[in-house]
């Protein structure tokens, strides 16, 4: 798997694909910059009068419901249907699904009405997507990974896709494969937007043309390793501000050597019965 992740990184940087985001106002700048850092090109258009045109210029679409509002979700549907029409992948980040009925409804509706390539969320969000009620606390991840795994499999059975569940151990699964990754650091939870950035990275890898399972695995590997390196680089009196900056730096300088040294898969890729 390491070789595949390295190959996907090289491919992304060779192509430098355009990734269309309809994302949230809290982390829009971070999402744009992490997309640039990995080697792709971001565009953040969300007006319904141009999203269909913009999708036709892009190689992937990232939909993030973090700052949900009636205007942007309609734009998400328009953009998503156009993306499906022209055959580019969609990454859905159901931020805070389960926190309110309105938010959960829209997360589920986007999944039901669009062909989603990757859903990237924490355990509670994935549970909410399948109709279960997790211990959603704002947008924090929970420890309900076993329940989230069951819910992810239900989502995949309903409509084939890749589900990436992020937490202390990241889990990526599709119809036949599972992979668990243990890169990252608790410090990432102290910086707003690391989950959103993971979704933008997933969209960037999807835009390079690799399959959605590898795209999600590559994205979580890159940001997890970058987080570990950023934390290890901190000196006395350096905190989350320095960590955040260095997270971008290490994504930008990610290479084969770092992936070979630091990628930590708890289980080899396995085929699910």
TrEMBL record:
One of its GO terms (molecular function) is ATP binding. It catalyses: 5-(2-hydroxyethyl)-4-methylthiazole + ATP = 4-methyl-5-(2-phosphooxyethyl)-thiazole + ADP + H(+). It holds the Pfam family HK. Gene3D superfamilies: 3.40.1190.20. Its EC number is 2.7.1.50. Keywords: ATP-binding, Kinase, Magnesium, Metal-binding, Nucleotide-binding, Thiamine biosynthesis, Transferase. ATP binds at residues 120, 166. Substrate binds at residues 44, 193. Pathway: Cofactor biosynthesis; thiamine diphosphate biosynthesis; 4-methyl-5-(2-phosphoethyl)-thiazole from 5-(2-hydroxyethyl)-4-methylthiazole: step 1/1. One of its GO terms (biological process) is thiamine diphosphate biosynthetic process. InterPro entries: Hyethyz_kinase, Ribokinase-like. Its cofactor is Mg(2+). Signal peptide: none annotated. The keyword Transferase applies. Belongs to the Thz kinase family. Catalyzes the phosphorylation of the hydroxyl group of 4-methyl-5-beta-hydroxyethylthiazole (THZ). This is Hydroxyethylthiazole kinase. It comes from Acetoanaerobium sticklandii (strain ATCC 12662 / DSM 519 / JCM 1433 / CCUG 9281 / NCIMB 10654 / HF). The gene is thiM.
């Amino acid at each position: 798997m390491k070789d595949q992740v390295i190959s996907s990184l090289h491919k992304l940087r060779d192509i430098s694909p355009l990734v269309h985001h309809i994302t949230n106002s809290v982390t829009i700048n971070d999402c744009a910059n992490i997309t640039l850092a990995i080697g792709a090109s971001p565009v953040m258009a969300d007006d319904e009068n141009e999203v269909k045109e913009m999708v036709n210029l892009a190689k992937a679409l990232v939909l993030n419901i973090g700052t949900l509002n009636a205007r942007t979700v309609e734009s998400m549907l328009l953009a998503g249907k156009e993306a499906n029409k022209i055959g580019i992948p969609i990454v859905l980040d159901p931020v805070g699904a389960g926190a309110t009925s309105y938010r959960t409804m829209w997360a589920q509706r986007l999944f039901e009405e669009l062909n989603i390539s990757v859903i990237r969320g924490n355990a509670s969000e994935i549970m909410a997507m399948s109709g279960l009620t997790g211990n959603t606390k704002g947008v924090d991840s929970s420890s309900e990974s076993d329940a989230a795994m069951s819910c992810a499999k239900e989502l995949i059975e309903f409509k084939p896709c890749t589900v990436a569940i992020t937490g202390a151990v990241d889990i990526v699964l599709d119809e036949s494969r599972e992979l668990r990754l243990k890169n990252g650091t608790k410090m990432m939870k102290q910086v707003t937007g690391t989950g959103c950035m993971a979704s933008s990275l997933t969209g960037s890898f999807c835009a390079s043309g690799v399959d959605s399972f590898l795209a999600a695995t590559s994205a979580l590997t890159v940001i997890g390793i970058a987080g570990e390196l950023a934390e290890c680089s901190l000196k006395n009196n350096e905190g989350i501000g320095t960590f955040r900056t260095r997270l971008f730096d290490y994504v930008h300088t990610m290479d084969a050597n770092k992936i070979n040294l630091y990628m930590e898969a708890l289980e080899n890729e396995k085929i699910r019965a």
